[in-house]
Amino acid sequence: MAEPLAALDAAPPAPSRQSSRMTVEIRQTSPAGQRILIRGAGLLIGLAISVAILAWAGVGLGNLANEFIYAIFSDSRSVASVLVQMAPLLIAGLAACVAFRVRFWNIGIEGQMIFGSIAATLVAITDFGPPALRLVVMLMAAALGGMGWIFVPVALKLKLGISEVVSTLLLNYVALNFLLHLLYGSWQDPKSSFPHSEQYDAIERLSPIGWENVTLALPLALLLALILWWALNISRFGFFTRFVHANPKMAKAIGIPVLGVTCAAALLSGALAGVAGFAISAGIEYRMTQSFFFGYGFSGILIAFLARNNPIGVIVVAFFVAILFVAGQSLQVFYQIPGAIVQLIQAIVVISVAAAEFFIRHRLKWTK
Amino acid sequence: MTSALELSGISKSFDGFRAIAAADLEVRSGEVHALLGENGAGKSSLMNIVAGLYAPDEGSIRVQGRPVRIAGPLDARRLGIGMVHQHYKLVKSFSALENILLANPKGGFARGRAAIDTALARLADRIGFTVDLTKPVGALSIAEQQRVEILKMLVGGARLLILDEPTAVLTDMEAERLLALLRHLASEGAAVILVTHKLGDVMRHADRLTVMRNGKTIATASPGTLNAGELTKLVVGTTTTECAVPAQNVGGPVLSLTGVSSGGNGRRETLSDVTMRICSGEIYGLAGVGGNGQTELAEILMGVVTTASGRITLEDAVDITDATPKTRRARGLAVIPADRHSYGLAGELSIADNYAIGDVYSGKYGGVLRMKSSAAQTAAGAAVAAHDVQGVRSLAHKAALLSGGNAQKLVIAREFAGAPRVILAHSPSRGLDVRAAAAVHARLRAARDGGAGILLISEDLDEILLLADRIGVMSSGRLVAEFAAPADRQAVGEAMVSHG
User: Fold this and answer.
1) How confident is the model at residue A1 (pLDDT cuts 50, 70, 90)?
2) Which residues from chain B sit within 8 angstroms of residue A29, using beta carbons?
3) Based on CB atoms within 10 Å of each CB, which residue in B239, B263, B292, B434 is the most buried?
4) What is the DSSP string of A213-281?
5) Looking at beta carbons, which residues of chain B come within 8 Å of A243?
6) CB burial readout B32-64, b (16+ within 10 A) else e
């Protein structure tokens, strides 16, 4: 990631404060190349600011290059840990992506992850179903758990017009406290008495694919991305979502079942979030811990936003956010940088890319 | 006497559309001056120029004899110009006092409050009404909100008062009271401009009137010198050069409404007990001043708003009262909506997508599992060529990039693709130039002669008279009169305004 360094060097000179005046004009059109350039510039500025903050916190440019590029790509174990980290991020990104396609602002991905994991863990603890199908049953349970948890805000929105932004967000806290209730109560690990569930049995874990510690969670995530790409970009359902997104009034008048499409996308979003929880519990931690979901909701939204709600783009962005996660962990260990720095960098990148959108719609003109 | 306001040669274009063309207007102190005209004649645009919201492209403005340049609403207020817009410019969650303060800052909230209290106390005797200043404006009735707007103007010291369609939303009694107030203010030396299309108000309360049509001011007169008939003729104008072609082959009913009312569930009843029948092979023109229930009727027919009571049937008495838009379209209903960018097109999506969505259920453009964008492209390309949609650089371009006339042609291309049996055309030529409008009219006639029944809802009386084989007039949500073509223009015009 050499861009931030270059961007720092190329900082623009301060504008002169002569009698010139800046006016904002609305652009009628913006060609595709220009849009990519503007968004790219936003991304670079965000990364440059992040680098500046890290440098100020005591991580020099050389160290950053070392942590983000050399340390990660020089040995296969680091690459593998990025890929392990990528799987749940990717699924959470897909969950945000499908909801945003129909303008359902699902801020409750973490709550749905929690209920996905609770449902999967319930299956694991009770040894429900034939052992050969145990993982499949856990997967289904996780999807249903996440779907069930988003059903509440969906119903509230449809029946009472309650904004899903508020209800999905607040239900995160309800879900978290229910999780703690279980982990400090009946589901506490009987072996260690720590507040996490007992370890999953071997058949309840997503098995390694035979390269480092990468598990089936990654192929599962990639498969889900492909399926969602088909659903949103190829199928008629996806065609409908484009109209629901662009102009719901027109979509309704032309005969698209707007309500049905919106509900289906929202429920699918909850199901995917539930599966993301399953991917962490059954693919990384092999048990349900009390903070496994932390940060994934925000990251999922960020990934979908940067990928412009395109499932294939989500794969790419999830990979880079995973690098950020892994490098952030080593910054924490080796430089005593607080873990929140990862969230800080994400937030800065989102704000600068979002701000760049302004320049796609407007142009600034200097008049003398 | 010097004029309070003198406009000469004012022109204004919006994106190539000439809304005002060399308009002149002279208003004197102490008079109520009515500005008359149909919807889209340019009245509001002209007044928005005086209020500083728009800058004129050409022309000069004089206030009290002095040439002025009004760069914004603040300038207008400094010149003593106040305007009550048709849609009130109030912050609903603020109290009346805060709204008045917002428009008339007096430096600091406490000081402002005191200043406005004294100003209002002084005003109260003169204007004969009070308003609860502490309630949020959203909790006030429409008439009370209007009073807040008037107070806002008067506290600001306005000497030239502009009111845009002030009586449209009031009951008869409220309207009488308002007009009496305006007369009173005028007698104290203020100049009042009353923008309206209600002839009754004008005849009774205006000292002079100016008529606008197609962006031009065409006459200034005193109401006493004209009778209602002459006034109507001035407002609605003469026919254009397009010729009426009567229907040849009228068949049985293809769309019947029986006692249809809207509202219910706490919503206002905007449509009451409408019964009408549209037959195959005819164009039924529904005339009326805008805002008398036409939009609700169109939404009910589209299937996006439910009826409170009544029945809607298609050919062979197929009931569609509660049918979804999808079912209605499948049964041969096509819609050319009034606002192309609200119900007609998804501007962010491509021209091809906007075309293909119309017939997406047929499987022509791919099945449930896989959309065939190539098929959509081909069909859209053929339709775009057949309907002469100009300015299409690529079918992948956003529909929002099309100009008004071409966007309308795209809508028509899509809606006429399935050989519809019933066509709802709501203001189909609004905002189009003469040539584009004639093309749209030709399409409608061709569809009629092909056996479709057409409901043409239009606020443009010329369009109705030109196209319709039968004419209904809508007023206050009711069907108040029906005429057979050729109808007497004057009679239709009077039916449009007399019930308002």
Assistant:
1) very low
2) 401
3) B292
4) T-BTHHHHHHHHHHHHHIIIIISHHHHHHHHHHH-HHHHHHTT--HHHHHHHHHHHHHHHHHHHHHHHI
5) 346, 349, 353, 357
6) bbbbbbbebbbbbbbbbbbbbbbebeebebbbb
Q: How far is B218 from chain A (nearest CA, A)?
A: 35
Alpha helix positions (H), B192-246:
199-205, 228-236
Average pLDDT of A6-29?
A: 50
Q: A234 vs B370: CB contact, 8 Å cut-off?
A: yes
**pLDDT, tens digit, for every residue of B41-51?**
888 889 999 99
pLDDT in tens, A264-288: 999 999 999 999 999 999 999 999 9
* A52 inside domain: no
Please tell me the number of Cα atoms within 13 Å of A123 on its side-chain side. 27
Choose the closest CB to B329 out of A234, A249, A255: A255
Instruction: Please tell me the class of the B240-332+420-500 domain.
Output: alpha beta
Within-domain flag for A123:
yes
Burial status of residue A71 (CB atoms within 10 A of its CB: 0-12, 13-18, 19 or more): middle
Looking at the complex, does the CB of residue A29 fall below 8 Å from at least one CB of chain B?
yes
* Reported ipTM: 0.82
Q: Which residues in chain A are contacts of B403 at CB distance < 8 A?
A: none
Does A219 reach chain B within 8 Å, measured CB to CB? Answer: no
* A126: in domain: yes
Q: Could you list the residue range(s) of the whole structural domain that residue A219 is in?
A: 76-336
Cα separation, B301 vs B328, in Å, equals 9
Is pTM beyond 0.90 here?
no
For the residues A31-49, what does the mean pLDDT come to? 89
Asked whether the beta carbons of B283 and B448 are under 8 A apart, the reply is yes
Bigger pLDDT: B405 vs B329 = B329
pLDDT at A238 over 60: yes
Fold of the domain spanning B3-236: Rossmann fold (3.40.50)
* Chain segment B328-337, per-residue pLDDT in tens: 999 999 999 9
- Would you call B358 and A254 a contact, using CB atoms and an 8 Å cutoff? yes
Contact: A239, B326; criterion CB under 8 Å: no
Which candidate from B348, B361, B367 shows the least CB-CB separation from A246? B348
The answer to whether residue A94 scores a pLDDT higher than 90 is yes
